Amino acid sequence: MSTLAVAEDVIAKYEPVIGLEVHVQLGTKTKIFCGCVTSFGAEPNTNVCPVCLGLPGALPVLNRQAVELAISAALALHCRVNPFSRFARKNYFYPDLPKGYQISQYDQPLAEHGWLNINIDGIAKRIGVTRVHMEDDAGKSIHDGFRDSDVYTYVDLNRSGAPLIEIVSEPDIRSAGEAYAYLTEMKQVMQYISVSDCDMEKGQLRCDANVSVRPRGREELGTKAEVKNVNSFRFVKQAIEYEIRRQVELIESGGTVAQESRLYNVETGQTVSMRSKEQAHDYRYFPEPDLVPLQVSEHWLHEVKSRLPELPADRRERFATDYGLREYDAQVLSLTRETGDYFETAAKVSGDGRATGNWVTGDLMGLLKAAGKEIAESPISAQRLGELVALISKGEISGKLAKEILAKMFESGEAASAIIDREGLKQISDSGALEKIIDEVLAANPKQVEQYRSGKTAVAGFLVGQAMKASRGQANPAAVNELLKAKLG
Ligand code: ADP
Ligand code: MG
Ligand code: ZN
Description:
The chain is α+β, with helices and mostly antiparallel strands. It is 40% helix and 22% strand. It contains 16 helices and 16 strands. It has helices spanning 8-11, 64-76, 176-192, 233-252, 298-306, 312-323, 327-333, 337-350, 353-371, 382-393, 399-412, 416-423, 431-444, 446-453, 460-470, 477-488, and strands at residues 14-25, 80-81, 84-85, 87-91, 101-105, 111-120, 123-136, 140-147, 150-156, 163-169, 205-215, 225-230, 260-265, 270-276, 286-287, 294-295. It is elongated. Residues 31, 34, 36, 48-49, 51-52, 161 line the site of zinc ion.
């Protein structure tokens, strides 16, 4: 990333103010106003019909599932869902927008006045959500570059009419890091509630960042620049960092920030002006005449609400209190809904949340990663992992042995007990059997026994190790220790 010539202490005199506009593609089977499928990667211009091609006279019909997903998102963001909202035409020309307008919502959006908490160095910060509204997506222009001294651009309308929500934040964000945390939390929430897969490579989550700076202590907001359509969280962060520096430098050198849209160039790490306020669109919004207003009854709202799963933030907190997990582990174990469900099932079976958490985040995740598998595809079921942890807790197998058993379970999918029975791997705590092992170890190591008796008691560790080895790791280490000392002393 390129750096501009402003010193850090000059930057620090300014407070960045950031508001994010996030577009999320709703995970419906079909488009928002027609029955065409939304599947990604189909032959260009095959999932189209008169409605999403924008042919004259074709009429839109609102997709009920899209509305339910939009309501779910709004509720998860603690918004007030308006009983009555309206679609509006947002007029502009673009080659991949055949209608000549986007169907969006304007002065009467689906939902307003929400919030999302982000976690900054262990402290929760609330970011206001101004509104959540529904709209249709445009098609996609594919720029094919130069050929025979001509530029080729193709238009694929498969995406035209894909259902979107736009989530507009309040200008509550104060750093690039906070913006990153907001986006991460947003994505997690949307995935948890099955509103969207939020696959950024497929354009299912897109973000515009509005950035301004003001001298610290000043109330009034500075003029903002909008960085459009950045396609990864990392780049959003970089673009905001650049933009803050650019604006401070501009102000410090006596200039003023122009209200404009800018593009982030990944190659140079800089933002460049795309269009200024003078060229800004006047969208000439007006109510969409082809659609009746959207009414969301109390009953419908409750129905959607009752189907919402536990939100990630609630789950993190509950995992920490119910299972005594450290904050970091609670976070890792609730990262996806599947991981959280897996952990919780296993913890209930084992009766030991902390130990279960360690086995999931440590060995199990290691094995999954090496095998390129998601937790939902784990060859070891949550039930069976819970059983394994219970065996350790009851002292029937050592932790070391459990690692080997876990690896075998991962191979075969068998229960731990089946492997233990077949291979005779139970921990040996029976003192008769242990005594026999220890006697052998003492006989084989007279020098160390001698040293111990002459006061070098540290050598006991070596002898315990030998006994463990002789038992193929199956001896109960505490019992070995005790018996050994009794025999030597
Ligand atoms: P516009 O009409 O230009 O789209 P909006 O008022 O709708 O502007 O706000 C768009 C986004 O910009 C919101 O996320 C909002 O929080 C943010 N925003 C508004 N004013 C500022 C500002 N001065 N600095 C940074 N962000 C801002
Ligand atoms: Mg805007
Ligand atoms: Zn269609």
